[in-house]
Structures are given as C-alpha cells and as structure tokens.
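Worked example
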Amino acid sequence: MIEKQLHGSVYVALGPGMQVYDISTEGIGEAGFRQFIDSIQHASIRKRGMPILTFGRYDMEDMRGLHFTSGQDKTRYLLECLGPAIQHDKGTLVQMTDTVSLYYCCRHDIDPLSDEGQNVRLRQDFRQTEAVFRSQVRKLQTMRRAAEQLREIRKDEPYKRKGLKINT
C-alpha cells in the first residue's frame, strides 16, 4: 500500500445550516488546526460572543488549486475546490470538533484535539454541559439584543427632549 504524503491542510468552520463561517489553508496538520480554531475564538471574544460552529480539518495530498485567499467566496470555494478534491481522493477529513465540545474540554481541562477531546460527546455529563452552554448563548444573545435596542433609544433621546418628532 502506498502511503499518501501530506502536502497541506484545509480548515473549515461551518455555522448553523452548514453555512460557511470561515476557511483557511494557513498551516499544516494539527498545529494549523489549533491556530485556526484559536483565531476564530479570539475574534469572537472581541465581538463578545462565540458562534456555535463545527470545525473540520482536511489533510490534502495535493494543494494545487486549493489555497484559499481572503477575497474568495467561501461557499464557492467549498463547493468548487474542496469538494471535488475530496471526491477525487486527494484529501481526507482528519479531525472535527465543535464549539460545545471546545467549551466542555475547556471546563474539564482536556485537550480538545486529543483522542480524549475528540470523544467528549460520548461522556455521560456532556448533555448537561451542552444544555448549560446553549442557555448561556441564548442569554448572551438576548442581552446583546437588549443592549442594541437601548443604544437605539439613546440615539433618539436628544430629539425627543427638543420636542421633535421622529418618523419611524
């Protein structure tokens, strides 16, 4: 059997409804995957909310035509570049994780990309942690909407104080 040689990796983050959130071809293997996940987490922290995502790492034997640039359409890249490469057996899905599993691993001091971290969904207490995580996300979304509404009200206040009517 001839062993495939790794020439690169493609990292994908999918949101609800399999909507493409982000793609990267920076880095190779597990180290690049960690970097990809970390960059999304750090950007989300700055925005004050981690979206619920599924992360995938594809190791490719041939990266010709697969390098992703920030100006490319992400969905089109997935359908027209990555999909056909995988169909032609030029790459394999090696690792997957999601936001809830990352949260669980963080709370239990587990490396999310280790064998143990890849199997946390099989643990008995995972469902409870998942429910807590999802309720926190809903609470944050509700708080964010309330804060946005409050900001909009405050924008209108000077006009109301002057007696001017605002058409909405």
Notes: The chain is about 50% helix and 15% strand. The helical segments are 29-47, 74-87, 99-107, 115-118, 126-161. Residues 8-123 form one domain.
